[in-house]
Amino acid sequence: MDSQAEVIDFLSRPASYGEPDGVVERIDTHGSVIFLHGRRAYKLKRAVAYAALDFRSRESRERACRAELVVNRRTAPTLYLEVRSIDRAGTGGLVFDGGGEHALDWVVVMRRFPQDALFERLASSGNLNVDLAERLGDEIARFHAAAEVTPTFGGAQASPKSSPKTTANCAATRRCSRPRPSNACTVARSTRSSNSPRCSNDAASLAASGVAMATYAWPTSACSTPADAVRRHRVQRAAGLHRCAIRSRLRPHGPRSPRPRRPR
After folding, report:
1. What is the pLDDT of residues 25-41, one digit of tens each?
2. What ranges in 73-216 are assigned the alpha helix state H?
3. Who wins on pLDDT, 245 or 259?
4. Where do the structural domains in the chain lie, given as residue ranges?
5. Tens digit of each residue's pLDDT (9 = 90 or more) over 51-102
6. In sequence order, what are the residues at sequence separation of 6 or more whose Cβ sits closer than 8 angstroms to the Cβ of residue 204?
7. Which CA distances in Å does 108 have to 31, 42, 158?
8. Which residues, 6+ apart, have CB-to-CB distance to 114 below 8 Å?
């Protein structure tokens, strides 16, 4: 029996909470095991690893428990109470907060609330009304407005594993999002033609599109014909100054069905 199996067995017994005759309910998720007893909920991190988390070590589970307490207290300060350790007592059994040198595991202690208060339960019973939805939206907006800005987290600079294609697409998106002059010319071109000029960020979009509109910053008077516009585009592309805005009409995959001929 490994340490977590022993801890799970300990948390599953009502006697561990000081009430031998009580009832312990258990909820399993992909990353945690939650034990419900009395007016408290005890959340144990599983010793698992996924793409977004790694709880295989005791130290990582302790850090995750303490971080969850800090982060979730921002929106639910009355629900998230404390972090408790599970230690081995001198008698060989497990106890809460035994003060040992090395804790076997850690749990987040929360105030228990009725499961019928979950929004999914309210929606199933028909009690999720507009007032609750608006209050939730107001609370989320308030939270985001007061949230701490972390410029070092996220974005291309914080993603060293981003592929060159992803980085190029991000750069092209930023170029396309710049304001375009009012006198820009618009050239319609079919994406089925192999001679069509291509922009750095339109390969995936144009592959499934029927008609694309490429807008380039060039005076309207200089684009008297589509051929002129294509030449201007090539010049701008060589200079790195072109701008592209793609609008596509998706076509179904597969060959086109022939159009019925009108009787003469």
Report:
1. 999 999 999 999 999 99
2. 119-125, 130-146, 164-176, 203-207
3. 259
4. 3-119, 165-239
5. 989 999 999 999 999 999 999 999 899 999 999 999 998 888 999 998 767 7
6. none
7. 13, 6, 30
8. none
| Alpha carbon distance 80, 109 (integer Å) | 7
Report which secondary-structure segment, H or E, holds 35: strand 32-37
User: Given the structure tokens 């005759």, which residue do they identify?
Assistant: 21
C-alpha distances (whole Å) from 218 to each of 110, 186, 198, 212, 247 are 62, 9, 17, 18, 19
DSSP secondary-structure letter at 195?
A: T
What is Dmax (Cα atoms) for the chain? Answer: 101
Q: Token pair 């295989």 is at which residue?
A: 56
The pLDDT score that the predictor gives to residue 244 is 46
Region of residue 236 (phi > 0: left; psi between -120 and 50: alpha; otherwise: beta) = alpha
Q: What b-and-e string marks burial along 159-174, b requiring 16 or more CB atoms within 10 Å of the CB?
A: eeeeeeeeeebeebee
> Can you tell me the distance from the alpha carbon of 12 to that of 202, in angstroms, rounded to the nearest whole number?
56
d(CA 43, CA 213): 54
